[in-house]
Sequence to fold (186 residues):
Amino acid sequence: MTLRDLPNLISLGRVCLVLPVVVLLVTERYGAALALFAVAGVSDFLDGFLAKRFGWTSRLGAILDPLADKALLVSMYLALGWLGLIPAWLVLAVIARDMVIVSGAVAYHFKIGRFETAPTVLSKVNTFVQILLALLVVFAQGVMPLPAFWITALTWIVLATTVASGASYVWTWSWRAWNAGRRKLK
Fold:
């Protein structure tokens, strides 16, 4: 184990925060859940900073970091949906988008070949508003009530960006697969 492994260890630590955050949410200890979510956010910043600043990047890190982020966010959405704090249809939309992207990536890998992914601007916006919604919902439950309009408006923004970014990924990777197939035929 070397310092070079530190970003991956931090990402693993973030994976380990998923269960405690979910338990805190479903037991309605929102302040503590918010605090752990903040720790996860700081760890996400820290592992990314270390990887970029010192060149401590790896294929494992490229998979582990977004996997840790996604596991935490999807788990939070499932817990908040279970508690009735966000609509079930939004939880389903968020999970369906991720399942479409992952299944498309797996299909691409096995049918076309290895690929490198990079999040699009739309995907980053979607992730940001998903995180913001989860934070505001938990904040409103555990710290201070917020105007219902904020949560409602953000819910619809999350749905719109989720659908748009999912469609964008499907379009982009379908186009790349089609072009790769055409190149193989030549």
